[in-house]
TrEMBL record:
SUPFAM superfamilies: GAF domain-like, Nucleotide cyclase. GO terms for molecular function: catalytic activity. It comes from Roseateles asaccharophilus. PANTHER family: GAF DOMAIN-CONTAINING PROTEIN (PTHR43102:SF2), SLR1143 PROTEIN (PTHR43102). It comes from the Bacteria. CDD domains: GGDEF. NCBIfam families: GGDEF. Residues 194-324 form the GGDEF domain. This is Diguanylate cyclase with GAF sensor.
Length: 324
């Protein structure tokens, strides 16, 4: 048996998959409708929407099997996500990569497999819509086109899941997306005994920008701030717009000193933006920076509350100090 290789973009692929916060969620009619439809149209006993996680494939939707996941190393879908085209195995018993695969020699006795990769944006191939039969079979050009069409519909549903985690104005994660990504990032830091710092930021004097220059200018300012965040922090940091003029950054593998250095970078970028854009206002912010402490922060929510409180105190101190 040949276990599937890892795709070159595995890290981005897994980050995208996890940011959807879809793994281990309950069944949903919008996905089940597609697998049922494919089962009827192709007359196969098994159809799956399979998402390929680090060590397993997990089924967002499945008809014809009771399992909800299998190890990645025995999965056909692990192979199917390595290329853009449909991965077709007319008879697994005749294919040296699969003839002794336990899913072929045992339940569910796979003979035929056709998996169309599913992508969302540029995040890589997250999984497949796949057809499985216990008899060998072939696919016509029309069959292949139909499977592709159904896969595009599954991708649209996945994209809708992704949209629910994004902030439309800035393109950053929204709070929901942040909670999902931050949970994974924090677990990673815990496992690898790495420090992490949470930044809770609120723009200063943002309302006057709206009031003086209009809401559209306020939107532009929020987008400019988001852009500076993206440049100041690492690609692996979790950056989100919490709502209104509040932003969150979770810095992983970062000491408090490294977090301070990143904040200094951000202030320099904002200063440069002010000078180059000449829009008649500055973008400044108050921040609460709280290093992760497993004793004090039992949950992500508790950590966020501590950073919110620290931000509030920083803002109050700034207001007491008067205009700068
Ligand atoms: N343009 C724009 N404005 C927004 C958006 N969301 C929230 N706001 C405005 O952001 C402002 C946030 O209020 P505050 O945080 O109290 O304003 P502030 O002037 O920064 O106050 P301080 O934080 O005390 O300095 C409100 O006026 C909201 O109407 C948005 O998506 N676009």
């Amino acid at each position: 048996m040949q276990a599937p290789d890892l795709p070159p973009d595995e890290a981005l692929r897994l980050a995208t998959l996890r940011s959807l916060n879809i793994l281990d969620t309950p069944t949903e009619e919008r996905f089940d409708r597609l697998t049922r439809l494919a089962k009827r149209l192709f007359g196969v006993p098994i159809v799956l929407i399979s998402l390929v996680d680090a060590h397993r494939q997990w089924f967002k939707s499945c008809v014809g099997v009771n399992a909800t996941e299998t190890p990645r190393e025995v999965s056909f879908c692990g192979h199917a996500i390595l290329a853009d085209e449909i991965f077709l195995i007319p008879d697994a018993t005749q294919d040296p990569r699969f003839a002794d695969n336990p899913l072929v020699t045992g339940e569910p006795h796979i003979r035929f497999y056709a998996g169309c990769p599913l992508s969302v944006g540029v995040g890589g191939r997250l999984g497949t819509l796949c057809l499985i039969d216990t008899e060998p079979r072939q696919m016509s050009a029309d069959d292949l086109a139909l499977l592709r069409d159904l896969a595009r519909m599954a991708e649209q549903e996945l994209a809708a899941v992704q949209m629910a985690t994004l902030d439309e104005l800035t393109g950053l994660s929204n709070r929901r997306g942040f909670m999902a990504l931050a949970q994974h990032a924090l677990q990673w830091c815990e496992r690898h005994r790495q420090p992490a710092t949470l930044l809770y930021m609120d723009l200063d004097e943002f309302k006057p920008i709206n009031d003086r220059f209009g809401h559209a200018e306020g939107d532009l300012a929020l987008r400019a701030f988001a852009q500076c965040l993206g440049e100041a922090f690492r690609g692996s940091d979790v950056i989100a717009r919490q709502g209104g003029d509040e932003f969150l950054v979770l810095l992983t593998e970062s000491s408090p000193e490294q977090a301070s250095a990143a904040l200094e970078r951000l202030r320099s970028l904002l200063q440069a933006y002010k000078l180059s854009s000449a829009r008649g206002y500055a973008l400044d912010f108050s921040v609460g920076a709280v290093p992760y402490d497993r004793e004090r922060h039992a949950t992500l929510e508790a950590w966020l509350a501590a950073a919110d409180q620290a931000m509030y105190e920083a803002k109050r101190a700034r207001k007491l100090a008067g205009p700068r």
